[in-house]
Amino acid sequence: MNIKGRNYHTIWVHPENDKIIQVIDQTALPFDFKIKNLTSEKDAYIAISDMIVRGAPLIGVTGAYGIYLALLNCRDENNFREYITERAGYLKSARPTAVNLAILIDEILDPVMQCNTLTDAVKVAFHKAAELKEREIEWSEKIGNFGCNIIEEIYNNKGETVNILTHCNAGWLACIDWGTATAPIYKAARKGIPVHVWVDETRPRNQGARLTAWELKEEDIPHTIISDNTGGHLMQHGMVDMCIVGSDRTTVTGDVANKIGTYLKALAAHDNGIPFYVALPSSTIDFSLTDGIGQIPIEQRAPEEVMWMEGKLKSGKTDQVKIVPDGCKIANYGFDVTPSRLVTALITERGICSANRKNIEQLFPDLSL
Amino acid sequence: MNIKGRNYHTIWVHPENDKIIQVIDQTALPFDFKIKNLTSEKDAYIAISDMIVRGAPLIGVTGAYGIYLALLNCRDENNFREYITERAGYLKSARPTAVNLAILIDEILDPVMQCNTLTDAVKVAFHKAAELKEREIEWSEKIGNFGCNIIEEIYNNKGETVNILTHCNAGWLACIDWGTATAPIYKAARKGIPVHVWVDETRPRNQGARLTAWELKEEDIPHTIISDNTGGHLMQHGMVDMCIVGSDRTTVTGDVANKIGTYLKALAAHDNGIPFYVALPSSTIDFSLTDGIGQIPIEQRAPEEVMWMEGKLKSGKTDQVKIVPDGCKIANYGFDVTPSRLVTALITERGICSANRKNIEQLFPDLSL
Question: Is residue A10 pLDDT above 90, yes or no?
Answer without folding.
Answer: yes
